[in-house]
């Protein structure tokens, strides 16, 4: 499970250090791809495999299913961590998420989200306002 958030910088070559607390769960590899809401998603290989099977089982006749599959699969890139825990974020993905130098690497349970730092905080502010104005929005019966 991925939790917490960490501030990092993308190097000039496009490399990003993955937080040490996340690396163990990525030891068998991972996939970075187009995310939703303006970020990138980084999935561990085991979860990506399950997600791929789910996407493959969606009906090809459903335009929304085809489009989601295209977004996630056609922009995907394998995670390759170097000895220092860095990975190259391909240029096309950096552009998709508008990643500049300062980024946030945030855990979201089964995935990691990679955000431009300013966009991350704007998005969280928007979420906080939405949740604050509608407490019924989230119904967690545990």
Task: Give the arrangement of secondary structure elements.
Elements: E1 5-9, E2 15-17, H1 20-23, E3 30-34, E4 40-44, H2 45-57, H3 63-74, E5 77-78, E6 86-88, H4 91-96, E7 102-108, E8 111-116, H5 117-133
Antiparallel strand pairs: 1-7, 2-6, 3-4, 3-5, 4-8, 7-8
Task: Give a verbal description of the structure.
This protein is an alpha+beta fold and 142 residues long. It has helices at 20-23, 45-57, 63-74, 91-96, 117-133; strands at 5-9, 15-17, 30-34, 40-44, 77-78, 86-88, 102-108, 111-116. The chain has one domain (5-137): Chemotaxis protein chec. The chain is globular.
Number of strands: 8
Give me the CATH architecture, please: 3-Layer(aba) Sandwich
| Helical coverage, percent range | 25-40%
What is the total domain count? Answer: 1
Structural class: alpha+beta
Number of helices: 5
Tell me the span between the first and last alpha carbons: 18 Å
CATH homologous superfamily placement: Transcriptional regulator MraZ domain
Identify the overall geometry. Answer: globular
Strand content: 25-35%
**How would a textbook summarize the main sheet?**
6 strands, antiparallel
- Report the CATH topology name: Chemotaxis protein chec
Overall mean confidence score, pLDDT = 92
Subcellular location: Cytoplasm, Nucleoid
Keywords: Cytoplasm, DNA-binding, Repeat, Transcription, Transcription regulation
Main location: cytoplasm
GO molecular function: DNA-binding transcription factor activity; transcription cis-regulatory region binding
């Amino acid at each position: 499970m991925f939790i917490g958030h960490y501030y990092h910088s993308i190097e000039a070559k496009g490399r990003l250090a993955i937080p040490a607390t996340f690396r163990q769960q990525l030891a068998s590899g991972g996939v970075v791809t187009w995310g939703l809401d303006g970020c990138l998603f980084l999935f561990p290989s085991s979860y990506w495999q399950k997600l791929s099977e789910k996407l493959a089982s969606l009906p090809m006749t459903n335009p929304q299913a085809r489009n989601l599959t295209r977004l996630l699969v056609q922009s995907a890139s394998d995670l390759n961590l170097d000895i220092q825990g860095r990975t190259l974020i391909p240029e096309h993905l950096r552009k998709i998420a508008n990643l500049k130098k300062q980024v946030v690497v945030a855990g979201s349970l089964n995935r990691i989200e990679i955000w431009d730092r300013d966009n991350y905080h704007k998005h969280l502010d928007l979420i906080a306002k939405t949740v604050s104005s509608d407490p019924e929005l989230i119904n967690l019966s545990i």
